[in-house]
Amino acid sequence: MDDSCVRGCGVVDDDDDDATTSTVTVSTSFDVRKGVDRSAATVIFQDDARDVRVCVRQNRDGDIEVDPTARWVWDCAPKTCEHLCARAEELVRGKRVIEIGAGTGLPGLVCAQLGATSCTLTDLPSELKLLEENVASNDTRSCAVDVDALAWGDLSERFQRERFDLCVCSDVLYHQPLDVFRKLADTLKAVVKKPGGTLVFAYYFRENLIHDAHFFEYLDEAFDEKARVEFADCPDIWLFELVLR
Length: 245
Prior knowledge:
By secondary structure, the protein is an alpha/beta fold. It has one domain: 3-Layer(aba) Sandwich (Rossmann fold). Helices cover 26% and strands 26% of the residues. The protein has helices spanning 76-86, 88-91, 106-113, 128-136, 157-161, 178-191, 209-220; strands at 23-26, 42-47, 52-57, 96-99, 118-123, 144-149, 166-170, 198-204, 223-231, 234-244. Residues 1-22 have low confidence and may be disordered.
């Protein structure tokens, strides 16, 4: 991509008058305190050391009939991608991967370039068009990537049957009621291979931690915490590696 299209490291620049036509590049120096620029047309995650470059479109064209939050790259996604790159050999390479609440599909597409054998990107039916466009516009290497609808707590026959080595879920909690937390936790439990499948769950701390703690209690019923990752430059992001019992 032409360097003239790149606006720094994926942070908001209030002085940029051309934000709606720009692209942002997210690197490991990303500063989450400023946030991913959701006015940008596209967002790139790039890790040169691992030959990873994924560019996803954010839907800002006004054709939005439902809550548009799934059509933006949220702030946990770059750090999730960074962690997947750092742990690619253990978590991703040769594994069957599913991303729940994929939105633009950024972490899942990074998994495809890191050597996953297959990667399934899921979201609500209304969000699949953008996912399909982002899959088509990226190099998925030898990974078999597909897009499918998955509503939390309402598993299709496919997802009642299939199990995955790695499930990725990034920045999906925000003011949902407790019954939705239960449906999400049950869905994560259902799609992860038992025993020993891994869930990488990234959470952005906002003002509702006490309420969100109920979700993590639901996860504790089925998963053991293997690692908790904190980022010195992004203290509001917590990333968990969890293993299904």
